[in-house]
Amino acid sequence: MSSSTSVGSSQDQESDLSDLESSFCRPSSFRFNESATSGEGLVQLFQGQRPYDLLTERFLSGLGPPPLRTNTEVLAVYQNKYSDIRGQGMMQNFGICKKTMEQKHGGNANVNFAWCSVSKDEIPKIIQYGFSCSMPKNDGSYGHGVYLTPANSSLLECVKKAAVDEDGLRHVFLCRVILGKTEVIQPGTQQCCPSSKEFDSGVDNLWSPNKYIVWSTHMNAHILPDFLLSFRAPCCLEGFLTPQVHQKMPTSPWLPFPALLSALSKFLPPSDLASLTKYHRELREKRITRHQMIQRVRQLAGDKLLVSVIKSLGAKPKVPTK
């Protein structure tokens, strides 16, 4: 049902994150353009600067193949400089929450980059007060919270939902997001907070998430709007939106559960290991299915650790056994 990591993050994204984070401490090297923004706190970036080029390339590549990508133009990129008292407070609060999440999940706060479409009017409110003051509109299909698109996912839906302003521009934030331990959220839910203390945020798909759900209870502390992109896209996007093709879920490598639990015992806290041992006993007693057991292992261990352990054991590509 859930995962403790963002399945779909990659080494490329980690490299991008490092490159972008290295620019957070140097806002004074950029020229501030107040007239081009809808509020204070934004510093305009320019072509040739590493963050500008990286963000523009990442954004356009997320639009997929032509013609949408070739008909979309990034007109401005801004960095949130967090220079006033409120901004500094937002950064400090984010840092505190990140440390808390690391303590909760064994050192992994699961911080990722994600896009969030906003209207022009929402920009200054979010910059000054955070998302609780002006939560971007969504259809509510995944509960009550802020929906964000992973940085390495398709941006078609995100672009479609971006409101067009009086100048024909659309706007998206690139945010740092503390995901912590995620759970899969089904469409149609009325959920407004994590289903239990075990979880912190939601995703729409475990293996290839196209949507992060940060609950209204967490959105101010767990989201930092670091960059703003203003762009012009074709007025009618319906022709560019294609149905998503759901990839077949990969089968789990063959591995006896006792061997897997023994390997995981080196990494998991005793409480999690005790839970997995209990689930394995229930599996052998046929009180739960093999699929349910696999899901519970993934909930507690997380896919990143699980894949690493399975590879280290040299498992064959078959289904797990009892």
Reported CATH architecture of the largest domain: Alpha-Beta Complex
Mean pLDDT: 79
Low-confidence regions: 1-14, 23-39, 243-253, 315-322
Structural class: alpha+beta
| Rg over C-alpha atoms, rounded to the nearest angstrom | 21 Å
Describe the structure.
By secondary structure, the protein is of the alpha+beta class. The protein has two domains: 2-240, Phosphoenolpyruvate Carboxykinase, domain 3 (Alpha-Beta Complex), CATH 3.90.228; 257-312, no CATH class. Helix content is 33%, strand content 18%. It has a ten-stranded mixed β-sheet, with helices on both faces.
Describe what is shown at a glance.
This protein is an alpha+beta fold and 322 residues long. 33% of the residues lie in helices and 18% in strands.
Q: Which key features would you list for this structure?
A:
322 residues; alpha+beta; Phosphoenolpyruvate Carboxykinase, domain 3; 2 domains; 10-stranded mixed beta sheet; 10 helices; 18% strand; disordered C terminus; RST; Poly(ADP-ribose)pol_cat_dom; NAD+ poly-ADP-ribosyltransferase activity
Secondary structure layout plus pairing:
Elements: E1 2-3, H1 11-21, E2 42-45, H2 50-61, E3 73-80, H3 85-104, E4 111-118, H4 122-129, E5 145-150, H5 156-161, E6 170-178, E7 182-184, E8 201-203, E9 212-215, H6 219-222, E10 223-232, H7 257-264, H8 270-284, H9 290-301, H10 303-312
Parallel strand pairs: 7-8
Antiparallel strand pairs: 1-7, 2-3, 3-10, 4-5, 4-6, 5-9, 6-10, 8-9
